[in-house]
Amino acid sequence: MNVDYHALAPEIILGITVLAVLVVDLLRIPKYWTAVIGLVGLFAAFVPVLTLGFCESLDFCTEPETAQRVLFGGSFVVDTFSLVLKGLFLGATAVALLLSVGYIEEDRYWQGEFYFLMLCSALGAVVLASSRDLVTLFVALELVTGPTFLMAGWRKGDPRSNEAALKYFIIGVLSAAILLFGMSLVYGYTGELTFGGIRAATAALGDSALLTIGVILTLLGFAFKVSAVPFHFWTPDTYQGAPIPVTAYLSVVSKTAGFVGLLTLSYQAFAELRDVWGPLLWILAALSMTVGNLIAVRQDDIVRLLGYSSIAQGGFILVPFGAAVAGNVTGDQLEQAFFATVTYLLIYAVMNMGAFAVVIAGANRLKSTLIADWGGLSSYAPGLAGLLALFFASLAGIPPIAGWFAKLVMFSSVLGVDSGWATALAVIAVLNSVVAFYYYAKVIKSAWFDQVPDTIPAAELRGMGRAVAPSLQFALVLTAVGVLVLGIFPNLIADVGDVAKTVAAGF
Amino acid sequence: MCQSRAVPLLALAAQTPNLYSPRPGPQAASASHKGFFETVLDQYFGDYITVAAFLGMGALLVAGAVLASAALRPNNPTAVKSQSYECGIDPVGGGWSQTQIRYYIFALLFLIFDVEAVFIFPWAVGLETFSDLGMGVFVLVEMVIFIGILVLGLVYAVRKGVLRWE
Amino acid sequence: MTVTPGWYMALAAVLFVIGATGILVRRNALVMFMSIELMLNAVNLTFVAAGRQIGLIEGQLSVLFVMVVAAAEVTVGLAIIVAVFRRRSTASVDELAGMRG
Description:
- The complex is a heterotrimer.
- Chain B has helices at residues 8-15, 36-72, 101-116, 120-132, 136-159.
- By secondary structure, chain B is mainly α.
- In chain B, α4 (120-132) packs antiparallel against α5 (136-159).
């Protein structure tokens, strides 16, 4: 049987890495080798992503006839879009792994299992980026979320971690059930599992109540996964209770995986049903931004604040979808909306990982995640305070940092559409950006301009920059460079624009 | 709308004989010299007669066995004999009792390995079709990899001492 | 009266709603989990009925995947629930010697 092993190479390498971590965990050698092998595997899986992406300029690479490599009868497609997201997932997992090293080692238990589960989840995410079939999508999505249930409850002795895991698990499985019921209805109506087939069938058969319910349930299942309001209630508790590196992983990889599912489903499978998902996602976007930001303002714990901030950022990511509400939207504009979402996802991943890296570095030393305790951080740890300012300014969208470019692309994709609905959503997004600026600036102000609280022994904490573990330092440098480079040279991302052409082709 | 099937793997499985062909209905054997109504009635009651005959035979068998044992055995009731049976030991406590947590881990392990076996059934059904197409070795290797991963999981569980009863 | 796949779909919808109601009404993690399993079985029934209606085997194949994923989730979920129970009912664990696994 002819299988394009080159196209499958990232998954195969990652799969072998997962098994290797399992075997190494059984051997009587120090457990940090599992982390080392995991990291090496992640970088090794990155190599075929690059060779696939730059196939035309490589000698040994046989190019496919079309712009995409279609495997298994259309269930698995490797194109620019999926490659970009595979790169994102691999990179974000590598950073999350670096963040976990010190944290999990400190707890002294189950290191091997932890990295095994994290890599399994990453494997799911990498497969998800390519799945163009309801069953493949579902299995990949569950492979992403299944291990994270356990990771959220990793600190078995901590009741908050237990609670985080249980809430996350119940909601995660519930959303899977809703998602599946929607998928089964879509399958029942169209008789197709592949996205291409569903699209053709819906074009031929037209609309029906059954199909509409199926589409809505499917998208609601994903709304839970991306924690869009009003399906967000598990997010703050889980984010606060889980170990912080796991929270970073959840808020970036797991969340992005949900958005990838939303993107491929709505722009490919349900491309003919824009009048169903457009309004639904419009409402979710508006609610997520507003509720997420307004509650974030009141938070005094920095992890919980980042939890609500990630809900709000999810709303911003959903905004381009809302542009599709307009009936007169053109194919070009839909491509732009798609491009805007992918761009935002990329930049969000880098800056949110960076923000969590700073929080972990600070919390390691301060033993507190209360914003008030972080007052005067700049006086004894100027480097860390600088990075904190960088990442939070990026989340707020201040030029010339990457977050600003993400917001710019997002706004221009919506404002390009000539419709009252799109304009209204843009106005809501602007108002929310202002609110978001307030609470991000509050954290920066606390770190730079407030006095060190009496409870914090600042003199002892001096020299904190040198106390940060090397793996954490590496993660901080990586994300900081990413945020700056993407902000100053945004044209690097513009190449991703081709993505939109290959995926949203046919509008 | 289903002409252009984009899933050759699944479509192949769909074409395998005896997998999805509905059984021919009872109408196929209708006798020509009878009227339609009579044929239907015949079949209708014919089925019931078969069921009734089996029911009757079953009842006779059970009744015969019970009566025969009642006629042959000695009859000497004591209090011990009318106790409920529990592994031959005197029953103690209520019906609701705590179970060892260890059973639980075994049950979880069993569950996951048991359910994974479900993938082997469609594979076994489709294997012949694939080997006719000259892909037999490929498909066999796929399953070897699948089972190899499961075995690795089992080895992991054993090495971690999950299956030890201590 | 013949039982068409449509009836199975209706039954599946009813099962799904019962499961969803169970989630909303019950507060025991284990019972909520059972309700979710009911919802997943409703999904399986829909897949099989739809596959039968269309005359394709994909519906049944999808059920296999749903079953296996559901089993994996059961394993994960029960492990989490056990961890929570161990932590929450520390007072009574001493009395229940069997819980010290």
